[in-house]
Amino acid sequence: MTDIVLKFNEAQQAVDELNAEAAKLEELTAEEGALVDQIAGSEWTGSGEGSWEQRQREWQKESVEESAALRRLVQAVEAAHGLMKDTESQVSGLFN
């Protein structure tokens, strides 16, 4: 029989690290967005204006999607960690 070793501390560390990275990503995205807004605030005219606006919409959409994907990953890891702890508790309760 294979022994299964659950490392709850390591799982919690992974959750904490993912949460920290998600917060950093959101902060960087906001900072970049503010910088881009400064550039976009200048008066663009001509053929470059439409291309610039399209790229900005794409960038904004992708940054929102990336942030949302990371948050979903954090939620999934948190849920898995919670299930691991609950299962461990239930199994140990069978032998007490």
Automatic annotation (TrEMBL):
Entry-linked InterPro entries: ESAT-6-like_sf
Keyword Coiled coil: yes
Annotated coiled-coil segments of the chain: 1-31
Keywords noted in UniProt: Coiled coil
Keyword Coiled coil: yes
Protein name: ESAT-6-like protein
